[in-house]
Design goal:
The complex is a heterotrimer of chains A (372), B (327) and C (455). Chain B has 327 residues and is mainly alpha-helical. Chain B has 12 helices and 2 strands, in the order ααααββαααααααα. In chain B, strands 1-2 form a two-stranded antiparallel sheet. The longest helix of chain B has 38 residues. Chain C is α/β, with parallel strands linked by helices. Chain C has a 9-stranded mixed beta sheet, with helices on both faces. Chain C has a 4-stranded antiparallel beta sheet with strand order 4-1-6-7. In chain C, a hairpin with an 8-residue loop joins strand 13 and strand 14. The chains are: A alpha/beta (372), B mainly alpha (327), C alpha/beta (455). Chains in contact: A-C, B-C. The interface between A and C is large, with 61 and 57 residues.
Chain lengths: 372, 327, 455
């Protein structure tokens, strides 16, 4: 494969709060190639959104990117080097804030948010906002921008775009508003669109329409996407490759088919098992035990060990880095779990441990009812 | 007239706390607030100022009711009952004018009747604080009840209550208070009640707008669905959860009330002579502005410090209670 | 604990606990002094157009004791309004809600408040459904206190016991809600609802705000509690996977009306209403090899202020029934329907007669229909959109039986022996009974009225 469009390497973003340092994103690496949809999936608190705002360098205080490297089309969005005093400082080739604002955000990397109502200003017309965005980012005159805006609205399937151009956001349904945001994201023909749970707030029928449209547009414009979601069904439907996040780390990465059919990491497996299925009746769900620990004080060793049904002593001690577990010639399929021989840390010989999955109160004591 | 105003002051501060956080979780809500306030420098300065003024008022009240000025007389020379001292205007320590040199027993000088300004300021604090808390208390309780009932029930109850309070709001408050006092009496009690009533619409609006949004919260509906009585819903859930901005407003309103009543006293309404009140002292001093500027200066400073103290506290509380900050 | 003595009209297992008949809930869109007033540019400058949102209209169903009725629909379909109206948190506009033999729609004040002991509710948002200023203990005790159950100590003991039952640590009694995660808060909600030992719990999207893994934990707990305390659930969700997991019977709502109601397996495997079918087709399956969703609906849900006549789904229905006066092939008819909807949405990039015709009519209808289409096309090429729309709507869409009659049928189920109610005219030939759902009393709870008007 050619050079990746976006390359994230060992990215670390931390939040410095009164209670301590929250390691929201703790050393994640992934690539996005041209024309593909890469999924970033995980439960709330996994650090997905922090990861995406780090890519755009939009992390607000008290958060800060503290390490790693982000490269986009050969340019350094973020990179550190060791200064003369031994402290890390931004590298010279790192894009300035001004360049980020004028050249990257919106133009080359666009973002679509979850809540379409909050992303559109209710006091301006939909068309006006879209036109302004195009005007600023593409240096078009007002009239050209308006024409372009109407074309974009038509492109994303807004009926009668000429008349809807002058309407206000509240006159649009949720799905329509999300279409407008997609139009806005596509308007500058960016190379990469970050979609942060764009369909979570929508009904399934509308979600289906949006996903179908995105697939079509993606083929037409050959845009790459980072699709952030918690929904495995959406992942299955739209993504080419998937990164699964747990507590600030990527714990499994695979092509979408492999992820579902050759699941490696116990967390991914547990996530899939805990979902009720629409296509068949499941009598007893198999939930993941416990809740995700706080990123402020993550468990030692493998971060999932406290909830993992396969946890052994070694899991508490060894912190696994992702390793490629795919066979020779197969596409990459990496996971961070010492269960696999590739890790060679003596999982087989290690003693199973008591975890939340077997006892403890703070968690899913769904069985208590039986005892009484 | 001021009989019993000390106990009223005390009553009020406790009542403030109670209504401040509802029946059940009063302590906790307050404790939480205090913790937030402690973190905020502005609020801390406000607390110290207000605390100091309130303490002075308390001491004055104790001295007045329990010891009949004995303490003040022991410490400072008190001319209250000394007819010989009448018609002497002494400047404060370190200043001189045609009336002679300042005396150490009158650190702030004396007034036109020869009464010690410092002592009168000291006792005036009692009036100021009583007025502030009483008037605000009336406004707070009235406004909270009207506002929460109005906001919680909505419909015609809301329409009726709001139109009535709006009518009150539409009349300039000074005119209203003066008319009120002309009808019922010119003394301090009616000044407080009058000012209190005119501040009802302020609290009413504030708490109503909060209640209208709180009412839509699921926990209110949950309480309704559980079969909790409306009265309990209002007192346990609605009021405690709408109270933060009201607390801020109340603090600011205390300063405003002190200022208004001082203004009324200046006009001759409110505390009647010889009861020492700041507004009245200012009023008396206006004829001596040129020969004895300090006579008006000290009551002015006292009012300034107290009002600013409450305002700073209000601002600090606002910051401390802002949900966006202490998420 | 279920042995507590209380004077209640008890209902046996399998009998109807709740019977809802012809329930309607309309909202006045413009309340207030000047509500409904609009300013005009012409004399007399103001006009009053009060509009009514018909959030729930003519809904009837039963819930049997011990079962879970799943209620599913998209946002805005009125399912939450229905739930709140059933619980009398909202006043019904008309209709009746018989709960254990007493019509809740006719009582109010203190008698209604007392009734609430038997019916509780669980809310969607675990964040906002617990008072942030109350500790968990008092939250769980509050309903007991409201109904004068037990004394102070007894309530505390019961609250702790319930916290344990729902899978929390009784030590958490003195904690504030913010110290809990979303899933745990939803458990507190469960404990609160259970505290007064109710028969019936309405669950309004109780798991949709939770992460998938936590969802499963809470769902399992809810099922365990149902078995233990013999609870009856009305379970509202927009997620069909969750509904399929937890329900015994499922009702589907669209735009304020119930379009289909059947046993779970029957509904999922043998859906009769095109909306249910579309909904089922739209569910994403967590399987990359499933081929994605098919058969997506187009367009938006119409406004409940002025809903379509007859079947409310007809404006989006992919299988609208052809009016009797035409004799088109299915292909021709669906082209006509598609064309009519496109005109309504002004979805044209060209008004050129030939191009439009090519785009929509591979098979052009002949006869009367053909003439009408020709007229419409002439209107379009003259850019007379309103005329074209009126012509097409009047002669095709509004002439369909779907627009003239309100559908209400019962069909015989393929799976199981439950009753299957479907509000679609396409099942009229197979229907065993028709008429309003109110007449379709559950077997055993009254005489079944066989109207048989159409068959």
């Amino acid at each position: 494969m050619s050079e990746p469009l976006l390359s994230v390497d060992n990215l670390k973003t931390q939040f410095f709060t009164e209670d301590g340092t929250v390691r929201a994103v703790d050393g994640i690496s992934f690539d996005v190639y041209e024309g593909e949809i890469v999924g970033l999936v995980g439960e709330s608190g996994a650090g997905k959104s922090v990861a995406t705002s780090s890519i755009l360098r939009l992390v607000d205080s008290p958060g800060e990117i503290v390490g790693g490297e982000i490269t986009f089309k050969g340019e350094t969005i973020f990179g550190l080097e060791e200064g003369d005093d031994g402290e890390p400082r931004p590298r010279d080739d790192m894009l300035s804030e001004k360049e980020m604002r004028r050249r990257i955000r919106g133009r080359e990397i666009a973002i679509i948010f979850q809540d379409p109502m909050e992303s559109l200003n209710p006091v301006f017309t939909v068309g006006g906002q879209l036109r302004e965005f195009i005007e600023i980012n593409r240096d078009l005159s007002g009239e050209e921008a308006e024409e372009e805006a109407i074309d974009m609205l038509r492109e994303v399937g807004i009926p009668a775009p000429e008349s809807r151009y002058d309407e206000y956001p509240h006159q649009f349904s949720g799905g329509m508003r999300q279409r407008v945001l997609i139009a806005m994201a596509l308007a500058c023909q960016p190379d990469l669109i970050i979609a942060d749970e764009p369909t979570t707030a929508l009904d399934v029928t509308v979600e289906g329409q949006i996903l179908e449209m995105v697939t079509e547009l993606q083929e037409k414009y050959d845009t790459s996407f980072i699709w952030v979601t918690h929904d495995m069904s959406v992942v299955a439907e739209i993504c080419d490759r998937v990164n699964v996040m747990y507590l600030g780390e990527i714990i499994e990465h695979a092509e979408v088919d492999d992820l579902f059919y050759e699941t490696k990491h116990p967390y991914t497996q547990a996530l899939l098992d805990s979902m009720p299925r629409p296509d068949k009746t499941v009598h007893e769900l198999d939930p993941i035990k416990g809740v995700m620990p706080e990123a402020i004080d993550p468990p030692s060793g493998c971060r999932f060990h406290s909830r993992c049904p396969h946890a052994r002593e070694v899991c508490r001690e060894v912190h696994p880095e992702q390793r490629d577990l795919a066979d020779e010639g197969e596409p990459t399929h990496s996971a961070a779990c010492v269960m696999y021989d590739a890790f060679e840390v003596g999982y087989e010989e290690s003693r199973p441990i008591e975890t939340e999955a077997t006892g403890g109160f703070s968690a899913g004591l769904t069985e208590t009812g039986d005892g009484e | 007239m001021a009989t019993g105003s000390e106990s009223q002051t005390d009553d009020l501060s406790t009542r403030d706390e109670e209504s401040g956080a509802g029946e059940i979780e009063a302590r906790v809500g307050l404790r939480y607030t205090l913790k937030q306030v402690k973190r905020d420098t502005t609020a801390r300065i406000g607390i110290y100022t207000v605390g100091f003024v309130t303490l002075v008022a308390l001491l004055a009240a104790i001295d007045y009711y329990l010891f009949d000025y004995a303490v003040a007389e022991a410490v400072w020379y008190s001319p209250v009952r000394d007819p010989d001292q009448v018609n002497r205007l002494l400047p404060p320590v370190g200043m001189e004018n045609q009336f002679g040199a300042g005396a150490i027993e009158h650190p702030m000088g004396t007034d036109h009747r020869g009464r010690d300004v410092f002592v009168r300021l000291f006792y005036g604090t009692r009036i100021a604080i009583t007025v502030g808390f009483m008037a605000t208390g009336i406004g707070l309780i009235g406004g909270t009840l009207i506002g929460s009932v109005s906001g919680y029930y909505g419909g015609w109850i809301d329409d009726l209550l709001q139109r009535v309070t709006e009518t009150v709001y539409a009349i300039p408050f000074l005119v209203l208070v003066i008319a009120f006092m002309t009808a019922f009496g010119r003394d301090l009690t009616f000044a407080m009640i009058g000012v209190g009533i005119t501040s009802i619409p302020v609290f009413n609006r504030l708490i109503r707008s909060r209640v209208v949004s709180i009412r839509e919260e699921d926990y209110i509906e949950a309480a309704r669905a559980a079969g909790v009585k409306d009265r309990n819903i209002i007192f346990r859930h609605v009021i405690p959860n709408s109270f933060a901005p009201v607390l801020v407003q109340a603090t600011l309103q205390i300063g405003v009330s002190i200022l208004i009543v001082a203004g009324l006293s200046f006009l001759g309404f409110g505390a009647q002579p010889p009861t020492p009140s700041w507004g009245q002292m200012l009023s008396a001093s206006r004829n001596y502005m040129l020969p004895a500027p300090t006579f008006s200066l000290f009551p002015g400073i006292a009012i300034l410090i107290t009002v600013i103290g409450f305002n700073i506290l209000g601002d600090g509380l606002q910051d401390a209670l802002d949900p966006r900050i202490n998420n | 604990m279920s042995g507590r003595d209380r004077e209640r009209g008890e209902v046996d297992e399998g009998e109807s606990l709740l019977e809802v008949r012809n329930l309607c809930k309309y909202f006045d869109n413009d309340g207030g002094l000047f509500g409904g007033m609009t300013l005009d540019r012409e004399f007399p400058f103001v006009s009053r157009n009060p509009s009514t949102v018909r959030a729930v209209e003519d809904v009837s169903f039963d819930i049997k004791k011990g079962e879970t009725l799943g209620l599913v629909g998209e946002s805005g379909c009125g399912k939450s309004t229905l739930a709140r109206t059933v619980l009398r948190l909202l006043d019904p506009t008309s209709g009746s809600v018989d709960f254990k033999g007493e019509d809740l729609a006719t009582i109010s004040g203190e008698p209604l408040r007392r009734k609430r002991q038997d019916m509780q509710m669980i809310f969607q948002d675990p964040q906002s459904s617990l008072d942030p200023r109350m500790k968990v203990g008092p939250i769980v005790e509050e309903p007991m206190r409201a109904h004068g159950m037990l004394d102070e100590e007894g309530r505390e003991a019961r609250a702790k016991e319930l916290l344990e039952k729902v899978g929390l640590d009784p030590q958490h009694y003195n904690r504030y809600p913010h110290a809990f995660s979303g899933g745990q808060r939803q458990r507190v909600n469960l404990a609160r609802a259970l505290s007064v030992n109710p028969d019936f719990i309405v669950c309004d999207e109780p798991v949709s705000a939770l992460d998938v893994s936590i969802q499963a934990q809470v769902l399992n707990t809810m099922q365990d509690l149902q078995d233990e305390f013999d609870l009856t659930y009305l379970f509202i969700a927009h997620d069909l996977s969750v509904i399929r997991h937890i329900s015994d019977r499922v009702a589907v709502m669209y735009l304020g009306q119930m379009v289909e109601l059947a046993d779970k397996e029957e509904l999922f495997e043998n859906p009769q209403h095109p909306y249910t079918q579309a909904l089922l087709d739209a569910i994403p399956v967590p399987d990359p090899r499933s081929g994605g969703r098919t058969n997506l609906l187009t367009g938006d849900v119409p406004s409940p202020i002025d809903p379509p006549s007859g079947c409310r789904f007809r404006t989006r229905c992919p299988v609208l029934i052809q009016p009797d006066e035409f004799d088109m092939s299915d292909g021709e008819w669906s082209a006509v329907v598609e064309f009519q909807r496109a005109v309504k949405r002004r979805e044209f990039e060209t008004t050129n007669r030939r191009e439009v015709r090519q785009q929509y009519f591979e098979e052009a209808p002949t006869g009367d229909a053909g003439t009408l289409i020709d007229d419409a096309l002439s209107h379009i090429s003259d850019e007379e959109w309103a005329e074209a729309e009126a012509l097409l709507t009047e002669s095709f869409a509004d002439a369909s039986v779907c627009a003239t009659d309100e559908p209400a049928y019962e069909v015989s189920p393929n799976l199981g022996d439950g009753r299957h109610y479907a509000a679609c005219h396409r099942v009229r030939d197979a229907a065993v009974a028709s008429g309003a759902a109110a007449d379709l009393d559950a077997p055993g709870s009254g005489p079944v009225e066989e109207l048989g008007a159409d068959d």
